[in-house]
Amino acid sequence: MTDRLGELSAAGVAIWLDDLSRTRLSSGGLDQLRREQHLVGVTSNPTIFAKALSDADEYNWQLKDLAIRGVDVEEAVRMLTTYDVRWACDVMRPAYDASGGVDGRVSIEVDPRLAHEAEKTVAEAGALWWLIDRPNLFIKIPATEEGLPAITNTLAQGISVNVTLIFGLDRYSQVMEAFLAGLEQAKANGHDLSKIGSVASFFVSRVDTEVDKRLEKIGSDQAKALRGKAAVANARLAYERYSEVFGSQRWQKLAEAGAHPQRPLWASTSTKNPDYRDVIYVEELIAPGTVNTMPEPVIHAFADHGETRGGDTVTGAYDEARKVFTDLQAVGVDMSDVIATLEREGVEKFEASWRELLDGVRKSLTEAAKGAGQPGRAAQGNAQAAEQAGGNA
């Protein structure tokens, strides 16, 4: 059988999973993907955690312990999510070691309500870093205007960062500047740059969703012919900027000090429009030194029928991508407004998911407190989960 995921990995694309749950961890499903499907990383976000905690009974023992202790809901969420991420870091540790610290990473996001508060974001990033205490952790910080100095200051402390919610090219350039400045400060602070990792999560399918909606409203044949083209063009031009920045003398000095480049990560890669090929955002964005984080159905879809087409599908298509932007402007699509809308909505969606997560945990704590009088149950669950997690409870 053709190993399509193996071909994708050989083309320079790191395959990451855009999902995490305790069920996936305890069942061995995550480790199986690592061993059998070339998986070398995991991303999480508030939406993923809200779904995981609403669907599984495997959190009950920990919820009962937390209820007995009387912790508040904010602390309970932190304990539940960091437990899963710590466990996932241990599962992915072989990929981290095999790649010299480049892959095998697991991401956890700072409270999205802090997206416009730089100082609090840095403090939260530090707290998550020492609480999880794994070298293959990424702290996710959104690429808002206020998030940029937080990215720099967090990296300067030697903390690895996944910059999330990037939609536009200009903001992406600012993110790379924040990364370089952070590494320069980290070096000045005496940190080992070879231990600091970073990716820049450039969102893909949401761009098509927003642009296609505007093209449908315009309604002309020229407009409709551009549907499904904006997201790939946007990401390809982002890779062009990445190649320029990480080919510069400024970067070379950091590389000589042991630094790893901040890789572009293609996020939001599931196809929202059923008329589009289900692996379009994988096939059209194959380039060396990139990450593609996919929901599990997309991983399996690519394994079944994905095509690498000989490798790089990005670097030879810059002129084509620029023409897409020119044509979009000609039919009346304001890409700067598209990007501003997506960034605002992205933060709002994660904030809403965070509130959903808080509400769900609050309800679960209340229910757990009612059953807390059964002796030994919580402790037994705690011990069993600790054993499954390799003792890292």
Automatic annotation (TrEMBL):
Pathway of action: Carbohydrate degradation; pentose phosphate pathway; D-glyceraldehyde 3-phosphate and beta-D-fructose 6-phosphate from D-ribose 5-phosphate and D-xylulose 5-phosphate (non-oxidative stage): step 2/3
**What are the UniProt keywords, alphabetically?**
Cytoplasm, Pentose shunt, Schiff base, Transferase
Which CDD domains does the annotation name?
Answer: Transaldolase_like
- What residue range is the signal peptide? none
Q: Which PANTHER family has this protein been placed in?
A: TRANSALDOLASE
The record ties this protein, via Gene3D superfamilies, to: Aldolase class I
Q: Which organism is it from?
A: Micromonospora solifontis
- Matching InterPro entries, A to Z? Aldolase_TIM (IPR013785), TAL/FSA (IPR001585), Transaldolase_2 (IPR004732), Transaldolase_AS (IPR018225)
Q: Which family does it belong to?
A: Belongs to the transaldolase family. Type 2 subfamily.
Q: Where in the cell is it found?
A: Cytoplasm
Q: What is this protein called?
A: Transaldolase
List its EC numbers. Answer: 2.2.1.2
Catalytic residues in the record? 140 (schiff-base intermediate with substrate)
Stated role: Transaldolase is important for the balance of metabolites in the pentose-phosphate pathway.
**Reaction(s) catalysed by this chain's protein:** D-sedoheptulose 7-phosphate + D-glyceraldehyde 3-phosphate = D-erythrose 4-phosphate + beta-D-fructose 6-phosphate
Task: Give the HAMAP family listed for this entry.
Answer: Transaldolase_2
The uppermost taxa in this organism's lineage are: Bacteria, Bacillati, Actinomycetota, Actinomycetes, Micromonosporales
Domain of life of the native organism = Bacteria
**Renumbered residue ranges of the record's region Disordered:** 368-393
In alphabetical order, the GO MF annotations are: transaldolase activity
